[in-house]
UniProtKB/TrEMBL annotation:
InterPro entries: dTDP_Gluc_deHydtase, NAD(P)-bd_dom, NAD(P)-bd_dom_sf. Gene3D superfamilies: NAD(P)-binding Rossmann-like Domain, UDP-galactose 4-epimerase, domain 1. It is an enzyme of class 4 (lyase). It holds the Pfam family GDP_Man_Dehyd. The keyword Cell cycle does not apply. Its EC number is 4.2.1.46. GO terms for molecular function: dTDP-glucose 4,6-dehydratase activity. One of its GO terms (biological process) is nucleotide-sugar metabolic process. This is dTDP-glucose 4,6-dehydratase. NCBIfam families: dTDP_gluc_dehyt. It comes from Desulfofarcimen acetoxidans (strain ATCC 49208 / DSM 771 / KCTC 5769 / VKM B-1644 / 5575) (Desulfotomaculum acetoxidans). Belongs to the NAD(P)-dependent epimerase/dehydratase family. dTDP-glucose dehydratase subfamily. Its cofactor is NAD(+). Signal peptide: none annotated.
Length: 352
């Protein structure tokens, strides 16, 4: 059994990945670390609190002493780093926390992992590591910048981030790459398109529009709403990460896309139609600074080399996602009200 450290495991994608692995893979014992900032929610981990293969620890990846203690105590030999500040709007208002968490936090993880993975801990230049050890950095297609009306992101493109958020993720990617090139660390980087699915924090487009529709509130759309994204169901993202962990070539980057290019206004109108609401709820607002016009992922590399492909058709995935939010209105209300923070201790026992 491998001991896998999952950082950011109480967030949207991280919590779904924790459950995904526990549901289908018995080879991992999961050490789940999350700082429980505003987007980290222990309600996302309901149902696995007593799972013997899962341990939750409240910790910040920037805390070198705590992370070192976790590696030592739990004999970590695999890392999947989801931990990140990820909301573009917040990065425009407060970029510093994005830079420190996403870049310096990644460096702390890499540095400590490097120290524990060496066969000869006395040789700081040693490039031989325990078999099977991996460090997987979960990144984003936003590091590539924006596309025109045609073309797709491929792994060999230069990184041209346009927001403090995407710049911080690009910086983290470069540090991960450098630790492979300099120290021989067995790393992979995945860059995904926009995720959707259950447990997504309701500041993001899809859950926000669902929530506002249900309450009859206005649906704020940036600019003309024609920004295009490639939408990926979070379960497909989880299966792709598992494929990279099991089959990925050391040092390689893999793009993960859902083959679903949709404009923001298309998404909003689909939600309105599904919920039987009026398009009069749509309210166009001033576009945010540096708003990328179009993203599109070319996932040829992961599909041909690792045999992965998205399983979700967008229409079915959206139907299930909307149904989930309809059936979990209390979860949304706890998030919006902030009540979820008050119940952390009641819902989960923090591991020391």
């Amino acid at each position: 059994m491998q001991n896998i450290l999952i950082t950011g495991g109480a967030g949207f994608i991280g919590s779904n990945f924790v459950k995904f692995i526990l549901d289908r893979d018995t080879q991992y014992k999961i050490i789940n670390v999350d700082a429980l900032t505003y987007a980290g929610n222990l309600e996302n981990l309901k149902g696995i609190a007593e799972n013997s293969n899962h341990t939750f620890i409240k910790a910040d990846i920037r805390d070198r002493v705590k992370i070192d203690e976790i590696f030592s105590k739990h004999n970590i030999d695999t890392v999947v780093n989801f931990a990140a500040e990820s909301h573009v709007d917040r990065s425009i208002v407060e970029p510093e926390i994005f830079l420190t968490t996403n870049i310096l936090g990644t460096q702390v993880l890499l540095d400590i992992a490097k120290n524990y993975w060496k066969v000869n801990p006395d040789d700081k230049y040693c490039k031989e590591y325990k078999p099977g050890v991996k460090y997987l950095q979960v990144s984003t297609d936003e590091v590539y910048g924006a596309l025109g009306k045609t073309g797709m992101f491929v792994e060999t493109m230069p990184l041209l981030p346009n927001s403090p958020y995407s710049a911080s993720k690009a910086g983290a990617d470069m540090i991960v790459r450098s630790y492979h090139e300099t120290f021989g660390m067995p790393v992979n980087i995945t860059r995904c398109s926009n995720n959707y699915g259950p447990y997504q924090f309701p500041e993001k487009l899809i859950p926000l529009m669902i929530e506002n529709c249900l309450k009859g509130k206005k649906l704020p759309i940036y600019g003309d709403g024609m920004q295009v994204r490639d939408w990926l169901h979070v379960y497909d993202h989880c299966s792709a990460i598992e494929s990279v962990l099991n089959k990925g070539v050391v040092g390689e980057v893999y793009n993960i896309g859902g083959n679903n290019e949709k404009s923001n206004i298309e998404i909003v109108k689909l939600i309105i139609s599904t919920l039987g609401k009026s398009e009069d709820l749509i309210k166009y607002v001033q576009d945010r600074p540096g708003h990328d016009r179009r993203y599109a992922i070319d996932n040829t590399k992961i599909t041909t080399q690792l045999g992965w492909a998205p399983a979700y058709k967008f229409e079915q995935g959206m139907k299930e996602t909307i149904e989930w939010y309809l059936n979990n209105t209390e979860w949304i209300e706890n998030i919006v009200s902030g009540d979820y923070v008050k119940y952390y201790e009641k819902m989960y026992r923090y591991s020391k």
